[in-house]
Specification:
Layout: H1 7-30, H2 35-60, E1 62-63, H3 70-82, E2 90-94, E3 102-107, E4 110-116, H4 117-122, H5 128-142, H6 149-156, H7 161-180, H8 184-196, H9 206-211, H10 219-226, H11 233-241, H12 252-258, H13 269-307, H14 309-322, E5 343-346, E6 353-357, E7 360-368, E8 376-382
Helix pairs in contact: 1-6, 1-7, 3-5, 5-7, 5-8, 7-8, 8-11, 10-12
Length: 396
Amino acid sequence: MDTLVYPRENTLSRITLIIGLIGWTALILGTLGIALAYVFAAFVAYVFAQSAWVAAVRGNAVQLSPQQFPDLYARLEHCCKELGMDVVPETYILNGNGLFNAFATRFFGRNFVVLMSDVVDAMAQDPDGINFYIGHELGHIRLKHLTGHLWRMPALWLPLVGAAYSRAKEYSCDRHGTACCTNAESAGRALLVLAAGAQRWQSADMRAYAKQLKGNLGFLASFHELIGGYPWLIKRVAQTMDANRALPARNPLAYVLALFVPFGGRVGGGAAGFMVVVAMIGILAAVALPAYQDYTQRATVNQAWMAGASTRAALTDYYVQHKAIPASLEAAGVSSKLPDGNNMTLNPDSMVVQVTTRAGTLVMAPESAPKAPNGILWRCAAGNGLKPNALPQSCK
């Protein structure tokens, strides 16, 4: 077992993948493949958005190399070696404008790491902590967190599951970051920067900070963590100092409420979760409703065609016997109303029958066919208000 992977991540990874594949299968089959068009449109939008971001990074940030910020590049190479990564990803340092962060991304098979300058500069008194940020982002790449989102997408918004998977990935990447540091203290202090800021972290007591965990186990704290994609920093610091430390249980009632809040992403939290659900319902309605309406129309027309079989047979027999078209349906010995309640009208000049259905008017038209029984073959056509694709294939 890979000790750098948080134990729950593997389980949650399998669960989300299975649910995601089932969700995609149901969506594609339920919409008769129409959903693929929406997926393609979303992919095109993603490509444009992601390309804009990658282009902005490459056009503005400074890429690390043996010549450009060699000290940081040496740390990057060290982390890659510690994590068993043969390929060193493109890594940039970008002006954070006060933002303490680092992130990894991927575009058309190429991995990128971006370090914000503020978080790097904040570790000037403990440069080993920079390794934590680098290792954390390399963890996302090594564990392939940047791929597989598409397959899991239907599952990632699910209450509890999506957020739990997101938090598990963060714990795993924290382990990667710690593995790149010479000691766990540096990793803990790197996380403390995110809590106390660029200067105050130096005088903050890391162990006292971790002990705050005991006072943050109430209902609301548990609930908001359950619907969020990041664990509380105090938990991450505690885990960094001791990876085997058991974290205290959350308030059980928080799980009940969190079950009704979909996951809206690491930034969005619960409010965005509701927006995700609304968006998905809208997409499903836009795709599935027309497909369902087409299905019901085809079923209605097919039922009317089958119910009109006795009418067609009676008209054919009348024409064969009398060598003439009957003046009315009643003259041919049939009712003007089908068993399902649909009304029929006969054209005494062409023997064409029109059936009024909920889906529109079905036209049953005879044509001469020497090879057909009695020399007459009946065809169907779309009349007033009926879509041509609703006609049964057997009679077109």
